[in-house]
Amino acid sequence: MVRDKGLRAVVVGAGITGLTSACRLAESGYRVTVIEARDGPGDGSSHANAGQLLFDRVSAMGSPGFLKSLPKTLADRSQGVGALGLAAPGNWPWALAFLRQCSASAWRRNTRDMLELARLSKPAFHGFLDRHPLAFDWRRPGKLIVHPTEAALAAAARTADFQARFGGRHAVLTAEETLAREPALQGTARPIAGAIHLPDAELGDCRAFCAGLVGVLRDRLGGEVRFGTKATGLVRRNGLVQALATPQGDIPADLFVLATGRAAELLPRFRGRKPLVGVRGVSLTYPAGPAAPELSVTDAGGKFVVLRLGDRVRVAGFAAFTDDTTPTDAECALLRDKGRSLMPGAAEYDAAPEAWAGLRPQTPDDLPMIGRAGADNLFVTAGQGSLGWTFAFGSAERLLQAVAQ
């Protein structure tokens, strides 16, 4: 039961992080208003992300292996990785901080901390669904991460063994076992030496979930969501934030939460602030084909994923440091060809797909900023990167803990 504190909270951002935070604040007793510049929920990074919920197998991007493979990856344009955006002076602080996270010890520390946040999300996510059932094409089919060579598979197995210290299950499969586990891979043109099987992996439509959260907030928890309203600044007085400034007028409240990838534009300087950069991903969503996959399948060599969401199949990939959110014809053609080469019958690849590109706000160490942000009543939860869907409920729990302190 919601306990009415009579306190007002304003949350900036109606993506998965903002709406999850808003619902949990409302459940704890706050009268919540969500402010969103776009016209609908989940229209930014949450719109058409890969849909994966990996509560026990997340990993930091920064590592010695990442640096070692980067020149080859950048030279191979089919990988869809672009770092030219980091040459912009405004991104230099992020790039320098990221380089400091590429040691073996930093990777282990960051991966451990990411796993702790992801594992906090799992019971909170399912507990919320027990209280507020929603339809969003959720399944727990498991996942395959296929690797093109024996050496790559062995390295992935070592990583999985490290991750397993913090919970979760995995198995290393041969090529034959991989094809048997997911029949949609039959006829693949991609090299497969084997795979890491994650039996507990879940998936769902993040945008549909965001729409469901809006309904929960408005209809069950007494909250409000204002779309088409851009936050332009913070009205501060005597060390506290008094109101959120918007073109439609100031919105007063007792508590303010910045839960958007653009949070850095509003954040004051505070201890623990991290630079953010947008990492652009692309996805194509097709009608399901005659041999749509049951499992979510990542091709580690090609750096893309194919999965089924209800009667649709999504192919997602690419990671480019840029502010451009328009998918190009070349990107769409490359991603389509990758999906077709991995699973020829998975999707109606000749149909016109729903093409999407979105910026995933990322910190140098892959750990989001969650906590007080320079004023006693101002908080931030931002920088969840490509794991916003997985981290959302864990981030909301951390936010509630910070607010209570």
Describe the fold and architecture.
With 405 residues, the chain is an alpha/beta fold. The protein has helices at residues 16-27, 64-75, 92-99, 104-131, 150-164, 175-181, 206-220, 329-342, 388-404; strands spanning 8-12, 31-35, 52-53, 81-82, 143-147, 171-174, 194-198, 202-203, 224-226, 233-237, 240-245, 251-252, 255-258, 277-287, 296-299, 304-309, 312-321, 354-362, 369-375, 378-382. The strands form four sheets. Strands 4, 5, 6, 7, 14, 15, 16, 17 and 18 form a nine-stranded mixed β-sheet that branches. The chain has a six-stranded mixed β-sheet with strand order 9-2-1-13-20-19, covered by helices on one side. A hairpin with a 2-residue loop joins strand 16 and strand 17. Helix 1 (16-27) packs parallel to helix 7, helix 1 (16-27) runs parallel beside helix 9 (388-404) and helix 4 (104-131) crosses helix 9. The protein starts with 7 loop residues before the first strand and ends with a helix.
In short:
This is FAD-dependent oxidoreductase. With 405 residues, the protein is α/β, with parallel strands linked by helices.
Number of helices: 9
Main sheet? 9 strands, mixed
Assembly state of the chains shown: single chain
| Distance linking N and C termini | 22 Å
List the helices and strands in order. Answer: EHEEHEHHEHEHEEHEEEEEEEEEHEEEH
What is the mean predicted local confidence, pLDDT? Answer: 94
Categorize the overall geometry.
globular
Q: Can you count the beta strands?
A: 20
* Helix vs. strand class: alpha/beta
Low-confidence stretches: none
**Residue share in helix:** 25-40%
Share of β-strand residues: 25-35%
Radius of gyration: 21 Å
